[in-house]
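Weekly modeling sync, notes
Attendees: AB, CL, MP (scribe)

Item 1: holo prediction request
CL wants a bound-state model with adenosine monophosphate before deciding which constructs to order. AB pointed out that an apo prediction alone won't tell us much about the pocket. Agreed to run with the ligand included and paste results into these notes for async review.

Input as submitted:
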Amino acid sequence: MHIVMLGPQGSGKGTQAQRLAERFRLVHIETGSILRAVSKQNTVLGKKVDRLMNVLGQLVPDAVVVKALRSAVDRVPRGRGIVFDGYPRTLVQAKLLERMLRATGRSLTHAIYMPLSQSTTIHRLSRRRTCQECRTPWILGKNLRRGVVRCPKCGGRVVQREDDKPATIKKRLAEYNKKTAPVVKWYRQRGVLIEVNGEPTIDEVWRELKAIIR
Ligand code: AMP
């Protein structure tokens, strides 16, 4: 099983991808997390990625992402399924993924699209906190009490992502509408798109998703 998760920021792709990976023993590849590690490196590339992600709220160039993705895919044993989270975000990336999968004898089985209104996106992202250790996202005031700084799951430090601050959120949404929305259309035209509304609660979305995958 090889799955791509699509949808705007805050639609719950990451949470549902984590659940899919646990339930169906898939390898979870999250490009945002790979790139955040690159952005912390004290190198020319690290500084460039940091500025694009955290200051400008823009996508990282395809060439950089694809290189990072390829090395992550190369580490996955043959026969193990993959859930891609945060990739593809451009048409070029979607086409390269198709080629990359084919070259390793794999093919995409599901493109899951989780639509979400812009107002919910902004509301969720501004309250999102993320565990630095296990990467679980939490929603302040919902499943994370105000003032709590330790992850309820693993005890790691819970922080607000640099790019979840209000000034960057709007820029990221503009990037999504311009560059990532066409990817959804592309998968739809190819007949592999499955739409799962991202508005309901995590557990409700999960129930629907699990039933579809089964
Ligand atoms: P995410 O954690 O998926 O919200 O990604 C955080 C940021 O990482 C994005 O706003 C982009 O700057 C960068 N990023 C993640 N995945 C990609 C991708 N597939 N292509 C380009 N940039 C990406």
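Recorded for review: Strands lie at 2-6, 27-30, 82-85, 110-113, 128-131, 137-139, 158-159, 193-195.
Action items: CL to compare against the apo run; MP to circulate these notes.
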